[in-house]
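Database export, one record per block. Field names are fixed; values are copied verbatim from the stored entry.
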Amino acid sequence: MSAVLEPGINLRPMTDDDVDDVMAIETAVYEFPWTRGIFLDCLRVGYCCWVLEDGDEIVSYGVMSVAAAEAHILTIVVREVDQKRGLGRQMLLHLLSLARQRKVKTILLEVRPSNDAAIYLYQSVGFSEVGIRKDYYPGKNDREDALVMGLDLKTY
């Protein structure tokens, strides 16, 4: 389940010092981005917060919470110019590996039904739809539902 990182790519835990670079990506990629405070809170409470660097630049990040035997992938983001390089998959596989190490049995995540690329990625590693969260995501004129996806690590 591990991914081989391409040359020059480094995977490491996120630190407070990374939050400015993470926020630059977050605000460029999302119309309704997380705040700096959300990332700092995730670090403060001990969530699994990781970055992928290409050389000395952060190109991707992921955040996952773990409690008891369940994990929740909160975000995986790849800088727009670095998308379609497999970096999102590398981050996802790393988070799944961390979940396994922590004896997680089930992993959940939410994704916009309109995000075909993310849905394809999650399905390609075994996630399946387990529900819908109505009006979960903000939108320009309305709210968008979230597709809830789950993966049973006991059988994966």
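Remark 1: The domain at 9-152 is CATH 3.40.630.30 (Aminopeptidase).
Remark 2: The CA atoms of residues 15 and 125 lie 28 Å apart.
End of record.
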